[in-house]
C-alpha cells in the first residue's frame, strides 16, 4: 500500500497541478464562447505570448515589476486581438470570425517566431513557487501545490464577479441576447472587451504556473496546452465556467494516471479521443446547456 | 406639443427599402398606434428610433433634441425605451435582476431600489417571483416583466412592439389596462399592435402603414370607423 502511494502520488499531484493550469486557459475559451459563440483559436497563442513577455521582461527588471507587467501585457494583447480581429466582424457570419481567429492565431505564432528567431528561450525561475518540497514520499515543486489552490480561489472570485456585480450581470445578459442588452443601455463592445481581458488575465497566471515546470519556451509551446484546455472546455460543456474547470482537472489527472501505468505515449491521444467521444455521445458536455428557442 | 418628431425616415436592409420616407409625430401624453400588415415596416420604425438598425436618411427629434446620430445606449439615456417584440426578458436572470438591468444606466442605487419597489407594487405577481429565473415565467408574466424592466429606465416615451402577441385574451385586456394606466401617469406611448381593434380604441391617434409608407392617419376612434380600415385590418367590414 505504502509502495503504491509512493509510486503514484507524484503522478496524481502532477495531474491536479496541470489540471489547474489547463483550467486557467479553459476559462478564457469558455467565457468567450459563452458571449460571442466563438472559439477563440488565438487564445493558446496569447498564453504563449505571456510566457515570452515574462522571459523578456524578467531579463531587464526585477520580479516585482516583470510579473505584474507580464499580466498587464497579456491583458492588453487579448483585448487587442478582439478589437482588431473580431470586433470589425461583429455582424458577419460566425464562420468568418472563426477564420479570423485562426488567422490571428497564426499571426501571433509567426510574430513570436520572428521576434525570437525560433530559438528556445529559458523561462525565468519564479523564486517561491520553484522551491522543491517533499510531501510524504513525493518530491515536487511548490507550484504543484500552489496551482490548484490558486485556481480555486480565482474561479471563486470569478464566479462572484459574474453573479454579483453589475458588469457580471451585463455579461450574462449579453451572452443571451445582444439586441435586448443594447436596449438596456449596455455597451456590448465594452462587455466583450472585459470578457477577453478576464480570459487573458487568467491565461497569464496559467502561463506562469505552467512554464515554471518547463525550462524553455518555443513559439508553439502553448499550442498543446491550449488545445487540451479547449478539449476541457468542450468536455465540461462549452460556455460553462464550472464545466471548464472540472473538465480541465479531469483531463489533467487522467493524463497523468495514464503516464503512471506506463502508457505515456498515449496520454495526449487520450485527450483527443475524449474530444471525439464527447462530440459523438454528449455534444453539450458535462454542464453545457441545451440550446432551445422558446417562441 | 409633440414629444417625438420623425421626418422622412428611410431604412434599407441589404438594398431593399423597408421604410420609404416616413414622417409622423407623437404628442406628449398620448397613446399613438402604428397599424399595418406584416412587413409594412412597423417594427422597423421602432428599431430605427432605438438605433438597432441604421438609418439611411431622415431625422428623429425627441423632446426638442436631435437624436438621429446617437447610439442605442444614449437614446435609452434620453428616456426613449423600447419593449421589444416577443418580450425578450433575460431567461437566465432572475426577475429581480431583469428589473435591475433595466436600470443599467442609472447610478443612484437608492432610487433604483425605489423604482423596483414601485414596479413590484404595480405588478404584485412579479414580487412573488422575485428570485425565480425569468425563463420560468408564463407569457403574460414575462410581458409584465418586460414592461416593468422598461419602466426601470424611467421612460418619457415607451415604445411597445406587439405587447399582446401570443397572449390569452384575458391577459391582453390586462396589458391594455396597464398601458392606459401608464398614460395616466404621464408616460407617452408609441404602440404597435396586431390587435388593431383594441389598439385603436385605446389610442388617441394612429397611423396606418403600408409597404414602408404611411397611407392614412387620424384619431384612433375615427380610423376604427373608417370602412377602408375595417376592411383591411379589422376583418369585419361585412359584419353589420
Strand order of the largest sheet of chain A: 1-4
Strands of the widest sheet of chain B, in order across it, are 6-7-8-3-9-10
The overall pLDDT of chain A, averaged over residues, is 90
The CATH homologous superfamily of the domain at 2-86 and 154-234 in chain B: P-loop containing nucleotide triphosphate hydrolases
Order of secondary-structure elements of chain B = EEEHEEHEHHHHEHEHEEHH
- The radius of gyration computed from the alpha-carbon positions of chain A, rounded to a whole number of angstroms, is 19 Å
Largest beta-sheet details of chain A: 2 strands, antiparallel
Short description:
By secondary structure, chain A is mainly α. Chain A has helices at 2-36, 43-60, 63-86, 94-116, 127-130, 142-164, 166-176, 178-183, 188-212, 223-236, 241-260, 267-281, and strands at 121-122, 132-135, 138-141, 216-217.
Describe this structure as you would to a colleague.
The complex is a heterodimer of chains A (295) and B (240). By secondary structure, chain A is mainly α. Chain A has a domain at 23-223. Chain A is 74% helix and 4% strand. Chain A has helices at residues 2-36, 43-60, 63-86, 94-116, 127-130, 142-164, 166-176, 178-183, 188-212, 223-236, 241-260, 267-281; strands spanning 121-122, 132-135, 138-141, 216-217. Chain A has a two-stranded antiparallel sheet with strand order 1-4. In chain A, helix 1 (2-36) packs across helix 10, helix 7 packs across helix 9 (188-212) and helix 10 (223-236) packs across helix 11 (241-260). Chain A starts with a helix and ends in a 14-residue tail after the last helix. Chain B is of the alpha/beta class. Chain B has a domain at 2-86 and 154-234: Rossmann fold, CATH 3.40.50. Chain B has helices at 42-49, 72-78, 95-102, 109-122, 124-128, 139-151, 169-184, 196-202, 220-224, 227-234; strands at residues 2-13, 16-27, 31-36, 57-62, 65-66, 80-83, 157-161, 188-192, 205-210, 213-218. In chain B, a hairpin with a 2-residue loop joins strand 9 and strand 10. The longest helix of chain B has 16 residues, at 169-184. Chain B is globular and about 45 Å long. Chain B starts with a strand and ends in a 6-residue tail after the last helix. The interface between A and B is medium-sized, with 18 and 25 residues.
Amino acid at each position: 500500500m505504502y509502495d503504491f502511494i509512493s509510486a503514484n502520488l507524484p503522478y496524481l499531484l502532477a495531474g491536479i497541478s496541470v489540471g489547474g493550469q489547463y483550467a486557467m486557459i479553459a476559462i478564457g475559451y469558455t467565457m468567450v464562447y459563452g458571449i460571442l459563440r466563438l472559439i477563440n483559436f488565438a487564445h493558446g497563442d496569447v498564453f504563449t505570448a505571456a510566457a515570452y513577455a515574462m522571459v523578456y521582461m524578467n531579463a531587464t527588471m526585477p520580479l516585482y515589476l516583470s510579473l505584474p507587467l507580464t499580466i498587464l501585457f497579456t491583458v492588453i494583447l487579448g483585448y487587442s486581438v478582439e478589437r482588431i480581429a473580431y470586433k470589425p466582424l461583429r455582424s458577419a457570419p460566425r464562420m468568418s470570425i472563426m477564420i479570423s481567429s485562426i488567422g490571428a492565431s497564426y499571426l501571433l505564432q509567426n510574430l513570436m517566431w520572428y521576434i525570437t528567431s525560433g530559438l528556445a528561450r529559458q523561462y525565468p525561475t519564479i523564486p517561491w513557487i520553484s522551491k522543491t518540497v517533499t510531501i510524504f514520499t513525493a518530491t515536487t515543486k511548490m507550484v504543484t501545490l500552489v496551482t490548484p489552490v490558486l485556481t480555486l480561489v480565482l474561479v471563486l472570485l470569478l464566479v462572484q464577479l459574474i453573479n454579483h456585480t453589475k458588469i457580471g450581470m451585463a455579461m450574462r445578459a449579453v451572452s443571451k441576447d445582444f439586441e435586448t442588452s443594447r436596449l438596456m443601455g449596455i455597451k456590448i463592445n465594452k462587455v466583450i472587451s472585459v470578457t477577453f481581458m478576464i480570459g487573458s488575465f487568467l491565461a497569464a497566471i496559467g502561463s506562469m504556473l505552467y512554464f515554471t515546470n518547463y525550462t524553455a519556451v518555443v513559439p508553439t509551446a502553448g499550442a498543446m496546452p491550449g488545445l487540451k484546455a479547449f478539449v476541457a472546455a468542450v468536455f465540461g460543456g462549452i460556455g460553462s465556467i464550472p464545466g471548464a474547470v472540472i473538465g480541465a482537472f479531469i483531463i489533467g489527472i487522467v493524463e497523468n494516471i495514464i503516464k503512471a501505468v506506463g502508457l505515456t505515449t498515449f496520454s495526449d491521444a487520450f485527450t483527443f479521443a475524449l474530444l471525439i467521444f464527447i462530440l459523438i455521445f454528449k455534444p453539450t458536455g458535462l454542464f453545457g446547456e441545451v440550446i432551445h428557442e422558446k417562441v | 406639443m409633440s414629444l417625438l418628431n420623425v421626418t422622412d425616415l428611410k431604412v434599407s436592409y441589404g438594398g431593399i427599402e423597408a421604410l420609404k420616407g416616413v414622417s409622423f409625430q407623437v404628442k406628449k401624453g398620448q397613446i399613438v398606434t402604428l397599424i399595418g400588415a406584416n412587413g409594412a415596416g412597423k417594427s422597423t420604425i421602432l428599431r430605427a428610433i432605438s438605433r438597432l438598425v441604421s438609418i439611411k436618411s431622415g431625422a428623429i427629434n425627441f423632446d426638442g433634441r436631435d437624436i438621429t446620430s446617437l447610439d442605442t445606449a444614449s437614446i435609452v439615456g434620453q428616456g426613449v425605451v423600447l419593449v421589444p417584440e416577443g418580450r425578450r426578458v433575460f431567461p437566465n436572470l432572475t426577475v429581480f435582476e431583469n428589473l435591475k438591468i433595466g436600470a443599467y444606466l442609472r447610478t443612484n442605487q437608492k432610487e433604483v431600489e425605489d423604482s423596483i419597489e414601485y414596479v413590484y407594487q404595480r405588478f404584485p405577481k412579479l414580487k412573488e417571483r422575485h428570485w425565480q429565473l425569468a425563463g420560468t415565467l408564463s407569457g403574460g408574466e414575462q410581458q409584465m416583466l418586460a414592461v416593468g424592466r422598461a419602466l426601470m429606465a424611467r421612460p418619457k416615451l415607451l415604445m411597445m412592439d406587439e405587447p399582446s402577441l401570443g397572449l390569452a385574451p384575458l391577459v391582453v385586456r390586462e396589458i391594455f389596462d396597464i398601458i392606459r394606466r401608464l398614460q395616466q401617469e404621464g408616460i407617452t406611448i408609441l404602440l404597435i399592435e396586431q390587435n388593431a381593434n383594441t389598439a385603436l380604441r385605446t389610442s388617441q391617434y394612429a397611423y396606418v402603414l403600408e409597404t414602408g409608407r404611411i397611407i392614412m392617419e387620424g384619431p384612433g376612434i375615427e380610423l376604427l370607423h373608417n370602412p377602408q380600415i375595417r376592411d383591411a385590418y379589422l376583418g369585419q367590414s361585412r359584419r353589420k
